[in-house]
Specification:
heterodimer; A: 354 residues; mainly beta; 1 helix; 40% strand; globular; disordered C terminus; B: 174 residues; Alpha-Beta Plaits; OB fold (Dihydrolipoamide Acetyltransferase, E2P); five-stranded mixed β-barrel; two-stranded antiparallel sheet; elongated
Amino acid sequence: MRNSSDVKRGWATSRRLPIVLGTLVLIAGMTFGVLVRWGTRWTIPLSPASGDRYELLAQWGGVGLPSGPFERPIGIAVTPGGDLYVTDARRRVIHLSAAGDIIGEWGREGDGPGEFSNPVGVAVAPDGSVFVSDYDQDRIQKFTSDGRFLLAFGSSGSQPGQFDAPAGLAVDAAGFVYVADFYNHRVQKFRPDGTFQGIVGHPGRIGDGALHYPTGVHVTSDGQLLVADAYNYQLQWFDREGRPIRRIGYHLFWLWPRPVSSRRGFNVPTGAAVGPGGFVHVADSGNHRLVMLSEKGEYLADWTIPDAHPSVYSPEKVAVSPDGSTVYATDLAANRILVLNVIRPHRSPGRRGR
Amino acid sequence: MNSMKKITVALLLVVTAAPVVLAQIDKVTVRVDGLSCPFCAYGLQKQLKRVPGVKGVKIYVDRGRAELTVAEGESVDFSAIEDAIKKGGYTPRDIWMEATGRIEQWNGQPALVIPENDVKFLLAENDHLRKLNDALSGQKDRSVFIAGKLEKQNPRGHHGHPYTLIIERFELVN
């Protein structure tokens, strides 16, 4: 039988219970709020060189091109001489001078030699030949510098040598071709004659070497492979043997890649290029901006497209002039090429900084 | 003049056992969420191009729409379209279509029937349907162009047919 003391204790307990529960919930929430901010982030130098920035120099709409102005330009590559090649939705490759003047163009709709369904990637080999990836046809075509067809390789599938939406391309100093194989979540390496050489990376979200919808590749001057691992929201470097070296991006709890904005990381980085001196330029498409990183991956600067289309990720790809002073980016959403100066007041972009 | 053919209406009884086959239609438009990344959008386009009967695909990244045109004389498997969208990593949301056919009564309900195929779409009650019925008064064999939104219904509630067409506009054709 309950007495008055029991009643008093019960009443006190029932009164404290919601307070205790509420406090626990509050503590848990605060803890979680702190923990979710833990993870990797870009290193921001304590004393970043002042004045590092991009300056918009020009926007090229492709007016005057034989087949019409740019229509959703996406792939871009720079030659050692400073020329550019661009691919767009008119199913063509456009060859431009460093000043944006038309040198030539080739391509039409179809699945024969020199024909395209969706050319999205382009790269220039040391001998001047041009490789173009076709996202829909799952093949790579090789051309001379003026567009004469040389060879094609690839077919649809997931076996070595096959593709499922080949995206970005890169060619190293020896002429080996690297292909970002989007839906197969890997990068494939081919010999200059198009025969299969190897695979870099593996499908996954966590850990070194894991790729998730990679869209871009670039080979650095010292032979490292830089991959724009778009939906792991990071860049990854691999050595000449295909072993992962490092990654840059934001990782929740240092593990789970997450899209972010501001100066913490990326949101769908679809392209990256390294200029002389090792400075990295990133097409951070989901954030509608270009990002400049040091060779070590330290944040240096970023530039946001001022009139970016809010619903379309852009820019897609980025390329750097041979001297590193100019960056070109394909702004698919606005049907234009953005041309930006790389301003580093205290250092020359073409030489390593002291 | 050719005599009128008797239209054979075959009811698709079990949605899961048999694919829903769209008859001759002109266009299907699907709204897809998250269509912001061009690489993903191109991937979706690639998947949809592979659906038998699809003549062309346009992806409007800025509007989040995929627009499919159907080859003349061909039919399209609607479940294949949905599967292709899912394979591309997206979820199909709203679906619209444009088709030309005739209006017939089926189990007391109006339905759009396309003569060359044995598929129909039940028509939802709305002002456009009422206006269409008025316009067709005395012209029951007249062809009609209809543009509208498809809604997936409980197959059991519609005798196995999963889609109801909500007319948004129509036009009598010769």
